Amino acid sequence: MSDVLETESDEDLDALEVRDPRWMMLVGGAVGLAAAIILTIDKVKFLTAEAAGESTALNCDLNAFVSCGGVINTDQASAFGFPNPIIGIVGFTVVLTLGVLLASGVRLPGWIWAGLQVGVLFGIGFVTWLQYQSIYEIEKLCPWCMVVWTMMIPLFVLVTARNLRAFAPGSAVTRFLSNWTLLVVVLWYVAVIAAIWFQFGENLWA
Fold first, then answer.
1. Domain of residue 102, CATH code
2. pTM above threshold 0.90
3. 107-139 pLDDT, tens digit each
């Protein structure tokens, strides 16, 4: 894959830089990182209490269906043999760092954008799997996990739209995603909210 950012004209580079997802990377990276850190701390609290033979409750344990504790102690919450939030800490730290560089006026080479695309693709795939597990298998919702979901969706859409403009500018998919970015994000949110509502309904506030 050629390094588009190093071969295009200054005008094209300026256009790409103006339309890149730097602000979403800053906000999404910071919020996602905070949520991942909180989830990691909560997991440590549970492990510490378990080792001491005690029980503990978390501030986000709101009811039988909305509970961080009811989710982070499941097998799905350690899909790779260690707590999932550790992946979030690493991933969102990278996203936040790149967002800071972009906001500072640094132009990232094409291979970094390609690597970021792989990262957000893995992230959205993993988050989608976790959404299904949480809603339909575990049947509990973790508020801090949902914060991560909320950040991951626009991060994926905006980074993908930017990379399509850079690497496949004439594609119909590029035009669609670039013209309807906000709509895609909103509809994605609506789909997730609808799935939650049809599964839990009024139990969310029980």
1. 1.20.1440
2. no
3. 999 999 999 999 999 999 999 999 999 999 999
